[in-house]
UniProtKB/TrEMBL annotation:
It catalyses: adenylyl-molybdopterin + molybdate = Mo-molybdopterin + AMP + H(+). Belongs to the MoeA family. Its EC number is 2.10.1.1. SMART domains: MoCF_biosynth. CDD domains: MoeA (cd00887). The keyword Transferase applies. It comes from Thermomonas brevis. The lineage of its organism: Bacteria, Pseudomonadati, Pseudomonadota, Gammaproteobacteria, Lysobacterales. This is Molybdopterin molybdenumtransferase. Residues 184-325 form the MoaB/Mog domain. The keyword Magnesium applies. GO terms for biological process: Mo-molybdopterin cofactor biosynthetic process. Its cofactor is Mg(2+). One of its GO terms (cellular component) is cytosol.
Amino acid sequence: MIGYDEALAIIQTAAQRLPAQRLAPERGLVLAADVISGEDLPPFDNSAMDGFALRVGEAGVAAGSEFDVAGAQAAGDAQVTATQGAASTGAWEIMTGARIPDGLDAVVPVEQTEVLMRAADDRPLRIRVLTNVPQGQHVRLHGEDVGRGVCVLAAGTRLEAPQLMLPAALGVSEVTARRQPRVALLNTGRELVDDPAQPLASGEIRNSNGPYLAARIADAGATLVWRETVGDDADAFLAALERALAAGADVVLSTGAVSMGRYDFVPDALRRLGASFHFHKVRIRPGKPLLFATLPGGQLFFGLPGNPVSGAVGLRFFVEPALRAMTGLPPERPLRAPLAAPYRKRHALRFHLKGRLAVDAEGRLRAQVLHGQESFRIAPLAQGNTWIVIDEAAQDLAEGALVNVYGLGHLLGLQLDGCEA
Ligand SMILES: Nc1nc2c(c(=O)[nH]1)N[C@H]1C(S)=C(S)[C@@H](COP(=O)(O)OP(=O)(O)OC[C@H]3O[C@@H](n4cnc5c(N)ncnc54)[C@H](O)[C@@H]3O)O[C@H]1N2
Ligand code: MOO
């Protein structure tokens, strides 16, 4: 049986990067090349205020100075040049975001002016400024936010809403990126019932892994292209696998039938198919019987154990690193947090514990191991906001000992909202 680090290295080698493509920027893509700005942002000098644009020169102008109003400029108006006469003495009425007329170099907000004369249509004709106006005041210079030729998003960045604003502002219609991996999910077990309204017959249980893993696959930045529940039958399983691959899956996940029981057919079915096995069983808890293989078509296959928490751990710590490698995201690094209470670990396995990161009365983070760590107990999952990971070699840990903590998903980060002392 191999340890987790070895398993992770195997996954990172086997998970080939998806091809880089030219694609319209959209949420979920991971950049495979830097995005270089081809435009200035802002694209032209413009006003940060509704008011009057002036030519004030290096010295600025003093409160009390008066100006004739030579014109008006609103957002969307094309470039204008303040006339020579107006440039020296005139003001231009200007709106927020409007191009600064060429030759002018400061803006005074309307509320810091007094209108001395108006036209019949209410246009201001002459103003007095009520404050000193330094050169450059309230002028947003072209390229001040982003200059042309600058790298605005680096290769390896995942596009989320904050990373979509820049391409939109800069007229970037295509980026070089990797799409989201496509994942299929096959839940095995003749005991499984999918319809929540169906009463359970003797020996049946409800399929809880299916909805959980489907939601987590989406959180993990992958697209679920196929989901099916199959009985404990290798032929039915292989037929479902064929449908999953026909749906375009890059990665197939199964749950259950991967351990030592007489109906644990997944390894044999994969052998029949000609899959190449990378490993089966890892020194972890829960989730030890996890199986990882490459299918004849090059797709990755993860056989997750059926116990619900084992499947959750398999997705979080085995499948998610593969998704990262496929899209070109760098490997994750855990954060460290102190244990809220002593923890005794009696087995030489790497433990993945349902945990809660909470803040104590002094505002310090504390990692609390939740009650009910067995792999069939899902109630604590609903209270958890973190995975606490304890190395294989660790044994007795004192209160305050630093442990590795991971967010519930590799893209979710640590979420502390709602925590109590
Ligand atoms: N003799 C041994 N028995 C077991 C070993 C072992 O080493 N030797 N390992 C145990 C460990 S650890 C795990 S984990 C489980 C894994 O078993 P399988 O992957 O073969 O899973 P199943 O037997 O099919 O199911 C296990 C358990 O989970 C329930 N289950 C399955 N699918 C779902 C689902 N979609 N939703 C909710 N619950 C599900 C299933 O009914 C079983 O109770 O093996 C141990 N045994
Ligand atoms: O490791 Mo199995 O993962 O639950 O009990």
